[in-house]
Design brief:
flat; 0% strand; 19 helices; mainly alpha
């Protein structure tokens, strides 16, 4: 029987939609003519199709036709229940209650409690032990910062400890000099060891990046930070505190300006080569070196004024330099934002023209809060530096006024505000009177005598004043003409960064009128969208 066994192979051609096909396969499977795997293979090859899930179409809601109703007399608005002061404060506290607040609150509590403990037992400590408390805290913060930086879930804590340690380094050098540790040979050895350790801590911290996208610490910035810390030493020497303050602020200004200008030139070269890395040297949130440098400079000023008691009139120029540096850095950031906005992509054609123009006007005219706040601080320090020197030290007042003119010239290029032009005019006007005060009395008398003879105005001194101010009026006319040309060049650069249609649209735009190019772009966009939909 087994020798006569021969496999039978036959083919049947049936439509896949045959109503009894599955019943026949099931019958063959029951009789054992085919196996289960053969049925699955057959169904996989011939009885499968692509499934298209139907999309749910929500029917449009019927619109209700509204008919104009007769106007009713205005009713008094119902008084809404205003929350109490306690509930408002509690809601604000809950909204701002986060890990950051807990972290900084804990650090503040630790520092204050330890300071209270040290103050209660301070008289029992020697000078070296008093400084040792601060040095131990600095090393402790650094150790915690180094350990938390290795933990993936403690990045915020590591960043906070990193910042606190960097801010404690210049205070350590201030404490070394205030306690007079360098006068004792034994204490001097401890000062040398502590200085080396603090320098090493600064080196290690400068190599860490605590925030995403933060600016790295360059070599010049690191030298600047260390220099501002070491300049706290030697203040017991007569006359050195004043030299240290001016050396710190002038050196910091030169290094910062040089770094920013060199970075701008390098970025310009990269952009000309087609490489856009979007670098920028200053941002209060991401540039920790700039923040530490400004903090250390202000710390030197605070120690000189309140710690040593130097006459503030002698530090007016230093205060003005510090304020100008803060304002100049903020203006650099604002100018970078304006330029990047001009070369950015053209906004979407779907957006309304009025909305886009209003947004651009607000971005160009109204700076954001951090930049505006930095410029406000800088201008306030410039005013303080001028105010404390205008009566007693006209030379420093002239220098601070020149810095003020440069600051408001930058604001005129950025915002073109009338109040900035008025302030620029006032600063230049008082600068002439300050220059007149520097002239010797004999030279002033000879100039007045010559002017009286020239104008023949012995009894009308206002004529002399008008003649003296006439060159300044000519200067202001030339300055405003130069400013207008500069703004026109900037507008040409801004227009060239846009597409031709967009440039024509901005030239032909009138308030309250939508441009034709805008509507044509919207029509083209809609027609192309409909064509693509039909073809699909």
């Amino acid at each position: 029987m087994s020798s006569n066994y021969r496999p039978v192979k036959f083919e049947i051609t049936l439509p896949s939609e045959h109503p009894h096909l599955l019943e026949g396969l099931d019958e063959w499977l029951r009789l054992g003519l085919i196996s289960d795997s053969q049925v699955k293979q057959f169904c996989w090859e011939y009885l499968t199709c692509r499934v298209i899930l139907p999309t749910e179409v929500t029917p449009p809601r019927p619109t209700k036709t509204t008919f104009p109703q007769p106007r009713k007399p205005a009713e008094k608005a119902k008084a809404t229940a205003t929350p109490s002061l306690f509930s408002t404060m509690w809601q604000s506290f809950r909204a701002e209650f986060s890990v950051r607040w807990l972290l900084f609150l804990g650090m503040f509590t630790v520092v204050i409690s330890s300071g209270a403990l040290a103050a209660s037992q301070w008289e029992r400590f020697t000078a070296i032990l008093q400084y040792g408390v601060l040095f131990a805290y600095t090393c402790l913060f650094f150790g915690l910062s180094f350990w938390t930086s290795k933990q993936a879930n403690l990045r915020l804590t590591s960043g906070a400890l990193h910042i606190v340690t960097m801010l404690l380094i210049p205070i350590n050098f201030w404490a070394m000099d205030s306690f007079g540790l360098w006068q004792n040979p034994v204490n001097l050895i401890f000062v040398a060891i502590a200085s080396i350790i603090l320098t090493r801590i600064a080196v290690l911290l400068s190599k860490q990046s605590i925030f995403a996208g933060s600016v790295p610490v360059s070599k010049l910035s690191f030298i600047n930070i260390l220099g501002l810390s070491f300049l706290h030493l030697g203040w017991k020497i007569n006359g050195f505190p004043l030299i240290a303050v001016y050396l710190a602020l002038i050196g910091t200004t030169v290094i910062t300006v040089f770094q920013n200008l060199r970075a701008a030139d390098k970025q310009r070269e990269e952009e000309s080569e087609g490489v856009d890395k979007n670098k920028f040297q200053f941002s209060w949130g991401k540039n920790l070196p700039a923040t530490v440098i400004v903090y250390s400079s202000v710390l030197l000023l605070i120690r000189a004024i309140f710690g040593i008691g130097i006459n503030i009139a002698q530090l007016g120029l230093a205060i003005g330099i510090c304020g100008w540096l803060i304002a100049w850095l903020a203006q650099r950031e604002e100018r970078k934002r304006v330029v990047s906005h001009c070369v950015a992509e053209v906004p979407s054609v779907v957006a309304s023209d009025a909305t886009r123009r209003e947004t651009k006007r607000q971005e160009d005219i109204s700076p954001s809060l951090p930049r505006l706040f930095s410029q406000t601080i800088g201008s306030f320090l410039l005013f303080i530096g001028w105010f404390v020197t205008v009566w007693s030290n006209p030379v420093q007042a002239i220098a601070v006024s020149a810095l003020g003119l440069h600051f408001f010239y930058g604001r005129l290029n950025l915002y073109s505000l009338k109040k900035d032009l008025t302030t620029f005019f006032a600063i230049g006007l008082q600068l002439m009177f300050l220059g007149w005060r520097l002239l010797p009395y004999e030279f002033q008398f000879s100039i007045i005598t010559f002017a009286v003879q020239l104008t023949n105005s012995q009894e009308n001194y206002l004529t002399l004043l008008s003649v003296g101010l006439f060159p300044y009026v000519i200067f202001m006319v030339g300055f405003t003409n130069h400013l207008r040309k500069t703004q026109q060049k900037f507008k040409v650069v801004e227009a060239s960064s846009l597409s031709p249609e967009e440039s024509n649209e901005q030239d032909n735009f009138k308030p309250g009128q939508q441009s034709n190019s805008k509507s044509s772009k919207q029509n083209n966009y809609k027609s192309s969208e409909q064509t693509n939909y039909k073809s699909s």
